[in-house]
Design a protein that fits this description.
The complex is a heterodimer of chains A (about 300) and B (about 350). Chain A has about 300 residues and is an alpha/beta fold. Chain A is about 45% helix and about 10% strand. In chain A, strand 2, helix 6 and strand 3 form a beta-alpha-beta unit. The chains are: A alpha/beta (about 300), B alpha/beta (about 350).
Chain lengths: ~300, ~350
C-alpha cells in the first residue's frame, strides 16, 4: 500500500488539478475526499487485475489518482472527450477498464447495486479483486442503496462502500452514524474523520483487505472534522505541504503540469457531432418518409 | 462430497432425445445450453434455485451449475437488476428472471436510466437479458397478468423480444443471451405449457436473429401484424375468415424493438390493408407506432384505414368474465378483419 509520503504527494497533485479546474471555471466545487485516498487504497492499474473503483460524481481528481491523465479528464470536463465518453458529456465520467475505473453512477444509491454486481462477478470469476464505491450519505435514503448493500451483504461480495458523511445527516436518516446501520446488515464498518488523511487511507485499506480475504462487504464512514473546512481551502493545502520537505516545489511543478495539460486540450479542435457518432449522421435523421427528399 | 458430475435434467434433454418440447421447455433448454456453452452466462432471480422458479423454468439447474450460477436473490428487483448490470460490466452475461414481468416496475429506473444508456455514455455495452412471464387469461388479476413492452419501448438502447412458438422461444432466447445489448424477453404464460405448441426442435444449435419478423400465414386480403399469444388467436381468426373466402396474411413480429419495418412494409404493400392485434392495452400500444411507420413509408399503398384490436384501456380484471371481455378474442379479430376486407 502507498505510504504517508506517497499519500501526501498524490493529494498535492490532486489539489493542483482541482485548483486548475476551479480557476478555469470548469467546476464550482472540488470533491477530492474521500475519493483520492480510496483510489490509492486499491490495487493499482499496474497490476494484472486492478481493483474496480467507482468514484463519487464530481470527484475527477480521484480518477487522476487512479492513473487517468489530466488531459483525458480535462477533455471530459470540456465535453471534448473522444476516448471513453466520445464527446457526448461534459462531466467527468470515465470508464477505463485497464485502470479499474467504472464511471460514477449519477443516480443516488444506484451505484451500490451496480458495484455489488461488479464484486459478485469478480467473486464468480475466482479473482481476488475488490470493488470500491464512493457515495455520500444522501444515497442511503434510497431503496437502491438498501437493495444493493443488502444483496452484496447476503452474497458476501468483495465490495467496499465508502460513505461521505460530512454533510447533514438528518434529512436522510434517523441514525447519527452509518456504522449502526451497517451492523444491521451484518456488515463490518470503519469510522474515520476527514481530518485524518492517513487514518482514512488506512481504514479504507483495512476494509479492502477484509473484502479481499473473503469476509464480505465493508463500509467506511467518513465523518466531519471541524478543523477541515474543505479540500480546496488554502489551509488544507498548507497542511499537506507542511508535511512534505519539498512541498512548495512539488506544488509549483504540479500546477505547471495541469496548466500545460489544460492549454493543450483547449487548443485541440472540438469534435463535431459526426465525429461523436463515429462518422455517421445521428440516427434520428434517418427516418424515411414518402414525401421527404432523399438525404 | 461426490466428484461425479450431476446428471443433466430430463426436462432440458428432450430435444437431444428427439422428443417434442413445450414452449416452457424450449426456454429451459435455451438457458441450460447457453450456460453449458458459455461460463459467463449465469442466472439470478427470486426462487430460481432451490425452488426452480415460480414456473419451474430453472428446475434442477442449481444442482447442476451451482449456486454461483443459479442465484436466489432477495425480493429486490431493482437491486438484482442493477447487480446484473455490474456483472455485465465485468464480462459476464447475466440472465435475470422476473418472477412475473409485472414486477419489473421497481427495475424500470435502473433499466432505462442506467442499463439502456451505458453503451451510449461510453461506459461499455451491457450484455444482459431480463426475462419472465407476461400476459393475461390465467385469472391472475392486475399484478400477475400485464404486458410490459410499451413501458420500455420508448427507451433507446433496449431490445424487446416476444416469441410465439417453442422454436422461436429457444432460438430467440439464445440470440438474446449472445447479443451485446440489454434485451427484455417476454414469455406469455398462456403459451408455457400449451400442448398444441409442443414441437420437435432441431438438435443443432440454432439462433433466430433479433429484429426479424416471420410470416405465420400468407395471404392477400389484408395484413395482420401481431405477436405472442395473439399470433395464435389471429391464426384461428384466419381459419374462420378463410372459410368466408378472405385470406389474411399474418406477420409475427417476434422482436418488438427494433421493429422489422421492412417485413411490415413489404406485407402492407402486398395486401394494401393493415390490422394490428396486440394483447397490451390500447392507448400507447405498439399499434400506434406501427401505423405511423406505415403512414410514413407506405401510405400510398393503403386501400383502407389502419385498424387495431387490443385489450381495453383498463387494469387486468380479477374477474374471469371481465377478463374475457378485456382481452382480444378471436371474434374481435374476425370482425375487424371482415370490416377491413370489405372496405
Amino acid at each position: 500500500m502507498i505510504d504517508d509520503r506517497g499519500l501526501d504527494r498524490a493529494l498535492l497533485r490532486a489539489l493542483a488539478f482541482e485548483r486548475t479546474v476551479l480557476d478555469a471555471g470548469l467546476r464550482e466545487r472540488a470533491h477530492m475526499l474521500p475519493g483520492v485516498p480510496a483510489a490509492l487504497a486499491l490495487r493499482g492499474s499496474a497490476d494484472d487485475q486492478p481493483d474496480i473503483f467507482s468514484m463519487r460524481c464530481g470527484s475527477p481528481s480521484a480518477a487522476l489518482s487512479r492513473g487517468l491523465s489530466p488531459e483525458d479528464l480535462f477533455r471530459q470536463l470540456l465535453g471534448r472527450a473522444t476516448a471513453s465518453a466520445e464527446g457526448r458529456d461534459a462531466g467527468a465520467f470515465p470508464t477505463v477498464p485497464e485502470l479499474g475505473l467504472l464511471a460514477p453512477v449519477e443516480l443516488p444509491g444506484k451505484g451500490t447495486e451496480v458495484m455489488c454486481g461488479v464484486a459478485m462477478a469478480m467473486q464468480m470469476q475466482g479473482e481476488d479483486r475488490v470493488a470500491l464505491h464512493v457515495d455520500n450519505v444522501a444515497g442511503t435514503a434510497s431503496g437502491d442503496w438498501h437493495e444493493g448493500f443488502n444483496f452484496a451483504a447476503v452474497r458476501r461480495a468483495p465490495l467496499v462502500v465508502v460513505m461521505d458523511c460530512t454533510g447533514p445527516m438528518h434529512p436522510h436518516t434517523a441514525v447519527d452514524r452509518l456504522a449502526r446501520k451497517s451492523a444491521a446488515y451484518g456488515v463490518e464498518s470503519w469510522s474515520v474523520t476527514l481530518g485524518s488523511l492517513a487514518g482514512m487511507l488506512r481504514a479504507i485499506a483495512e476494509a479492502v483487505a477484509h473484502a479481499r480475504s473473503g469476509n464480505g462487504v465493508g463500509l467506511v464512514e467518513v465523518l466531519p472534522d471541524p478543523t477541515v473546512s474543505g479540500p480546496d481551502a488554502p489551509s488544507f493545502r498548507g497542511q499537506v505541504m507542511q508535511r512534505m520537505d519539498d512541498g512548495a516545489e512539488q506544488w509549483d511543478a504540479d500546477m505547471a503540469e495541469m496548466s500545460s495539460a489544460l492549454s493543450r486540450v483547449t487548443e485541440e479542435p472540438e469534435p463535431g457531432a459526426a465525429a461523436a457518432y463515429g462518422g455517421a449522421a445521428p440516427p434520428w435523421y434517418r427516418t424515411p418518409t414518402l414525401r421527404m427528399p432523399a438525404e | 462430497m461426490s466428484d461425479q458430475k450431476p446428471t443433466r435434467p430430463e426436462h432440458v434433454s428432450r430435444t437431444a432425445a428427439g422428443e417434442p418440447v413445450t414452449f416452457l421447455e424450449a426456454i429451459s433448454e435455451a438457458l441450460f445450453e447457453e450456460m453449458e456453452h458459455d461460463p459467463s452466462v449465469f442466472l439470478l432471480g427470486e426462487d430460481i434455485g432451490e425452488y426452480g422458479g415460480a414456473f419451474k423454468v430453472t428446475r434442477d439447474f442449481l444442482g447442476y451449475f451451482g449456486e454461483h450460477r443459479v442465484m436466489d436473490t432477495p425480493i429486490s428487483e431493482g437491486g438484482f437488476t442493477g447487480a446484473a448490470a455490474g456483472a455485465a460490466h465485468m464480462g459476464m452475461r447475466p440472465v435475470v428472471e422476473m418472477q412475473f414481468m409485472d414486477f419489473i416496475s421497481p427495475a424500470y429506473d435502473v433499466l432505462t436510466n442506467y442499463v439502456a444508456t451505458s453503451a451510449y455514455r461510453g461506459a461499455g455495452a451491457l450484455p444482459m437479458v431480463v426475462r419472465g412471464p407476461v400476459g393475461g387469461g390465467n385469472r391472475g388479476g392486475p399484478f400477475h397478468s400485464q404486458n410490459i413492452e410499451m413501458a420500455f419501448f420508448h427507451t433507446p438502447g433496449l431490445k424487446i423480444v416476444y416469441p410465439s412458438t417453442a422454436h422461436d422461444a429457444k432460438g430467440l432466447l439464445k440470440a438474446a443471451i449472445r447479443d451485446d445489448s440489454p434485451v427484455l424477453f417476454e414469455e406469455h404464460k398462456g403459451l408455457y405449457r400449451a400442448p398444441w405448441l409442443r414441437e420437435v426442435l432441431p438438435k443443432d444449435d440454432y439462433i433466430i436473429p433479433l429484429g426479424k419478423a416471420r410470416t405465420a400465414r400468407a395471404g392477400t386480403a389484408l395484413t395482420i401484424v401481431t405477436y405472442g399469444l395473439m399470433v395464435h388467436r389471429s391464426l384461428k381468426a384466419a381459419e374462420v375468415l378463410a372459410a368466408k373466402g378472405v385470406e389474411v396474411e399474418i406477420l409475427d413480429l417476434r422482436t418488438l424493438l427494433p421493429l422489422d419495418d421492412e417485413a411490415i412494409i413489404r406485407s402492407v404493400k402486398k395486401t394494401g390493408k393493415l390490422l394490428v392485434v396486440h394483447e397490451d392495452t390500447r392507448t400507447g400500444g405498439i399499434a400506434g407506432e406501427i401505423a405511423m411507420r406505415v403512414s410514413e413509408q407506405a401510405f400510398e399503398w393503403l386501400d383502407g384505414p389502419m385498424l387495431r384490436v387490443t385489450s381495453i384501456d383498463a387494469p387486468v380484471p380479477y374477474s374471469g368474465a371481465l377478463e374475457d371481455v378485456f382481452l382480444p378474442q378471436v371474434d374481435d379479430i374476425v370482425k375487424a378483419a371482415t370490416y377491413l376486407a370489405e372496405y
